[in-house]
Amino acid sequence: MAKKKATGRRHPLASVTLLLVGLLATGGVYALFTSSATAETNASQEALIEEGGKLFAANCASCHGMALQGTSQAPSLIGVGAASVDFQVGTGRMPMAYTGPQAEVKPPQFTEDQIAALAAYVASRAPGPAIPDESLLQGDGDAAIGAELFRINCAMCHNVAGAGGALTEGKYAPHLSDIEPAYVYEAMITGPQNMPVFNDHNISPENKANIITYLKFLDDNPEPGGLGLGNIGPVSEGLFIWIFGLGAIVAITVWLTAKSN
Q1: Please, are residues 143 and 218 in contact by the beta-carbon 8 Å criterion?
Q2: What is the mean predicted confidence (pLDDT) over 126-151?
Q3: Which reaction is the catalytic activity of this chain (predicted)?
């Protein structure tokens, strides 16, 4: 009697076919959601840039030009990047309250969302330094390395304790106490006003984070060596000691001499 053929057995390619179908389905769904998310992100970014353009036209173009080309009253903003806008507008330096040797720090005139929109608009016109990543702003680097770098690159203007100092023609280097880490980093990569630019070849991102760590250490440990005399610098402090210290010694000497007579 002939045997019946076995039924219910899978074809050798069935498993491979099912695997391919599953991969294609998964890939299709992923591509669909990714495309939707990308499209939504692009639309959101375009809306942000459009809002920034309106804010720029209403508040900045009269000085910097409609095409960011600059005028006789203000410099070009082509290529300054989002970091420069975030620094200048976030610290209230821009818009300037009045014309002077340099822009003064004051309360910001725009909200955080408006500043982000302005930064996105300027960055969209030409490439430039971007707003730094949060991982570089935590103040968890090496304070000792940061202190050495600060003394070499920054202390001649900002004072070794970050107390600031006078420059020429009525300009000055501002103090660096209780400054937002993002603004410190942005100042280094954009070189606002009289400050030089420290790009990643001059000072690496890691070492910029170390400098921020040193400044945070100064904020958390004011006057670690005792009376700071206002952090006016070694020359001024030395002159103070020379005049008042030596004067006190002379006064005591005269008093002891007069008493003995």
Answers
A1: no
A2: 96
A3: a quinol + 2 Fe(III)-[cytochrome c](out) = a quinone + 2 Fe(II)-[cytochrome c](out) + 2 H(+)(out)
CB-count burial class (<10 Å; 0-12, 13-18, 19+) for 155: middle
Q: Which residues, 6+ apart, have CB-to-CB distance to 151 below 8 Å?
A: 160
**Matching residue, tokens 């900002």:** 158
In CATH, the number for domain 34-129 is: 1.10.760.10
Query: What are the CB-based long-range contacts (under 8 Å, 24+) for 50-57?
Result: 51/114, 51/117, 51/121, 52/116, 52/117, 52/118, 52/119, 52/120, 52/121, 52/122, 52/124, 53/121, 55/110, 55/114, 55/117, 55/118, 55/121, 56/118, 56/121, 56/122
Are domains 34-129 and 132-220 of this chain identical in fold?
yes
Domain boundaries, the chain: 34-129, 132-220
Whether the Cβ atoms of residue 165 and residue 175 lie closer than 8 Å to each other = no
147-161 pLDDT, tens digit each: 999 999 999 999 888
Residue with structure tokens 């103070």? 240
Residue 3 pLDDT more than 60?
no
Contacts of 70 (CB under 8 A, 6+ apart): 64, 76, 77, 78
pTM: 0.74
User: Which residues are CB-neighbours of 27 under 8 A, at least 6 positions away?
Assistant: none
